[in-house]
Amino acid sequence: MTQARFAAPVWFELVCILLLGGGLSVAMNLAREEPVPWVIDFAAMERRDALKKGLETVDAHGARIMLGKPGVVFIDARTPEEYALGHVAGARSLPQEAMYGDLDEATKTLGLSQEDRLMVYCGGVLCDKSQELAEALRTAGFPYVTVVTDGFDGWVAAGGPTEGGI
Amino acid sequence: MRVVYFLLRVALGGIFLAAAWDKIVDPLAFAKIIRNYQIVPDMLVGGVAQALPWIEVVVGMCLITGLFARGASFSATLMMAVFLSAMAWAWHKGISTQCGCFTTKADDAISVRTFIRDGSTLALALLVTTGSFLGARRV
């Protein structure tokens, strides 16, 4: 063990490690074919992801305008417990987990028609459930599927009417 | 004792190297996981997601080679403590998110298992840190 002979102070070692790690990350990022931005625009990233999947997206303000229009059905992708605690007025509960089971049966039970415009939402901007379920619904033959990007949190913030819960 | 310390140190280094790989391959996926924890402000998530894995690589390499062993083992302990706290925070807030510990793929959600795994790694890091500081004093 020779390393202990050079007794640099611990803080010096820590600074070296930090600088080396930081420097490497900068250098390796520059070496990437497509350098990753240091400040990521998550909203844009989500929009891009959704577009890539061929899904329409709308924020809660936009979604409010759709509420109550004929043929528009709000779909709550969260768990039944979360749904029970409060949901968009008139929304039907279709937990995202349903996509792993018999989705055709589940949509039939809810009385969804393929002509319907399905507005899928989950908890907030951070959840993926609405997007995953929306994708599954499209695959299941529902062409008109829209993801409400800021979810139930956004809906409440936008002053949208809710039902259930407190 | 020296052999045991050496083996533990190399093992810890290996763990850090293994943990860094997936995050380096897909920094955006790692960034999403960090964001899910809702601790780091959005502005900084990109930077953390890119710098953290490389710091893990440097720490891992230092632990394996024995260079800067005290600083490296100390940072390893610090990092594990921060990771565990972050996980406990997410658990407490009821945020269901990926651990982001070893993989950025969607099969490593926070659970009792990840707590035990990170807890043992923290214990190992503490052992190595103690060993490296004691070893440095003896020489």
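Chain B has a mean pLDDT of 91.
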